[in-house]
Amino acid sequence: MSKVTFPATLGLVCALGLALPLAAQATTLGPAAKRCDANDSAVLVDVAGFKARTGTLRVQIYAANAKTYLEKKQWLDRVEVPVAKTGTMRICLPVERPGNYVVSVRHDINGNGKSDRGDGGGLSGNPDMKLSDFIFKRKPSLAATSVSVTTTTRRVPVTLNYVSGLSFDPVS
After folding, report:
1. CA distances (Å), 23 to each of 13, 20, 30, 87, in order?
2. How many domains does the chain have?
3. C-alpha to C-alpha distance for 17 and 13, rounded to whole angstroms
């Protein structure tokens, strides 16, 4: 049996202590991940508030244009990935030039590719939305959802909301 000395044990504990925070950080996902890692012109979407760790996450970016944002097939880029087992998910979306953009996130909880009542969603700016907004297809204002992107990566937090009764709120 080998004997472990106190300095060796202390060194191992210190090394583990330094490694844990790095391992706990979320990996940047998406085909443009290297752009966010290099702080190039892109949007890094931090998605939190998952109701379940199943299905897929779809993140889309739109030009902040009143006529086209959140409209079908009007997105500029789209990333779809399996939901991670733990933590915040970080998705990188490139932008061609500085400007104003809107980010849309959908958690397809059962991964069937369709919008179901159990699915979650969110937008940049985390606007307060009601279930009736979805029923009557009312979009939140551009002022509430648009983010300005320059020549560096813009971090955008999005908290997912889910239908619960007659409300559409984050999971408590």
Report:
1. 15, 5, 19, 12
2. 1
3. 6
Rounded distance between C-alpha atoms, residue 37 and residue 28, angstroms: 8
End-to-end CA distance of the chain: 51
- Gap between the Cα atoms of 118 and 106, Å rounded: 11
Tell me the residue range of the domain where 38 lies.
27-169
Encode 38-71: b = buried (16+ Cβ within 10 Å), e = exposed: eeebbbbbebebbbeeebbbbbbbbbbeeeebee
pLDDT in tens, 94-121: 999 999 999 999 999 999 999 898 999 9
Residue among 29, 36, 62, 26 nearest 147 (CA): 62
Kindly report the pTM of this predicted structure.
Answer: 0.83
In sequence order, what are the beta bridge partners of 52?
Answer: none
Are 57 and 91 within 8 A, CB to CB? yes
Does residue 44 belong to any structural domain of this protein?
Answer: yes
